[in-house]
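User: Second chain of the day. Same drill as before.
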Amino acid sequence: MKINEFIKKVNKIFYAEYSYDSNTIYVYKTEQDMCDENKYDDTYYFMSVKVCDKKFSLFFDPDWMPEDVKGLSLLFNLLRELEETPIKNRFSKKKYTIQVIANYDSAYLNCHKRDNRMTFCDDIETDYVKTRFTQSEIDELKQRPDLAIDWNKAIIKEVKDDED
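Assistant: Same format as last time:
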């Protein structure tokens, strides 16, 4: 299970967020606890999970622990599934947009999913057009003889998970 899948599933029971800075998942009892602007000054989460180590490092704050036993049981099942996932598979592959003309919003490389045809337009990905590429896909694109792109000048920018 990928971390972003884990977060989505936990959010159906409680509220969770992932901190890239600390590689930690924070789980909150209520949405208000998660959104509180002072949450980093005090502990509003009832559980934190350090996810990059070989074994999880769990922290529980009994003052914020929910009484929802069924929800906690589901949460622990999700944690077990995440922990059983090899570390390298927990993280989504980084994706990038490719802008071929600087400062021009309609100059992103677009791949039409139906026929693999390439065009240039905005960077919005749809069911029909792919605009976000993994590094291995970019390497393959660089080998395509039908693309006359100066890859030294192309602006390849990482897309953050929340922009997907």
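Helices lie at 3-10, 31-35, 69-84, 135-142.

User: Great, on to the next one.
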